[in-house]
Amino acid sequence: MTTTLKGTTAQQDTNIIPFVPTGSFYFSHGIQAFQKRRFSAAVKWLKKAIEASPDEALYRCQLSVVYTEVGSYHAANQVLTEVLADFGKEYVDCYYLMANNYAHLGLLSDAKKYVDTYLEQPGDGEFEDAAKQLKDMLDSLEEEDEDDDWAFEDEDELLIYQETAFYHIEQEEWDQALSVLEEMMQLFPEFTIAKHKYAYALFMNGDRDEAIQCEHAHLEKDPSNIHSHVNLATFYLQEGMSEKASFHIERLRNVFPMHEQQKLAVAEILSRAGYYKEAVDRFRMLRDKQVVRRRVYYKWYSIAVYHTGNPSKALHLWEKGCKQFPKMGEEGGPWKQE
User: Fold this and answer.
1) Residues 6+ apart with CB under 8 A from 220
2) CA pair distance 237, 217, nearest whole angstrom
3) Which residues of 218-250 are buried (b: 16+ CB within 10 A; e: fewer)?
4) Which among 335, 295, 285 has a CA at the least distance from the CA of 312?
5) What is the rounded end-to-end Cα distance, in angstroms, of the chain?
6) Domains, the chain, ranges and CATH?
7) Does the pLDDT of residue 6 top 90, yes or no?
8) Is it the case that residue 4 has pLDDT exceeding 90?
9) Is 202 or 3 the better-scoring residue by pLDDT?
10) Which of these ranges, 129-138, 213-222, 253-262, has the smallest mean pLDDT?
11) What pLDDT score was predicted for residue 155?
């Protein structure tokens, strides 16, 4: 009986068709993982897809997109460079993707070169509208560089003023912050961030109407000013005017600035406004060490993380913030939003 069963099993085994995973099989799993924001798994599956189908350029391009999403911009551009080298220049979308990565890295001349190359290609590319927006932004930044806020002979002095003002703001010492910011605005009139920090300190010090008027005046001169929209959204949320706040918040939800200070400002207001998932995504993009040591980073990132279902990480961020800024400990914790 045992012999017969073995014979039957052996005979059945010969009829089994082995399953050999293809590149498309791995790729589909990679896409599913990416859509669920399981980025490590997405990278693993996409690398398997590339190993199985090394001649499929799409798989490599998708891997670059995952790298971009997690902020590994150099790795993304390395993959895209290999695609262009191996498959030729017909994969024109690579130029836009590389331009976008260079922009995130702050390498604006390289970003401009690649976005121009993309837009010079014949036909309508998949990213044409996005590329035009990126080019407009880069051109605008190039114009600003001619009169750059940071292009001062006394950059060290400016940095000292800036850090002193930030210190007083983070310690909620509004009178001292206003005094320093007034001096900054006199000495460095082109350093526009000081004007917005001044309006913020004014509001927190009780001069709310004047602060709101200041920011509306700035916004009239520059309707797309990120710091003005952030401040006004903050002010109106504090005043309980949610409709007026949402006007400015909606204009920020689709804005992805290049400067780290602006990135932090947008992430903070999204968390303040209750867009926690979007806020977490924005906080994850921050790389600058000075920015990720700010009080608002610890506080509002912690709050956003807590409300997206990760209390242990939220508590870790909050505790780090409290060590650096003891007054945070008086605010209860990330579960107690203002």
Assistant:
1) none
2) 19
3) bbeeeeebbbbbbbbbbbbbeeeeeebbeebbe
4) 335
5) 76
6) 23-146 (1.25.40.10), 155-331 (1.25.40.10)
7) no
8) no
9) 202
10) 253-262
11) 62
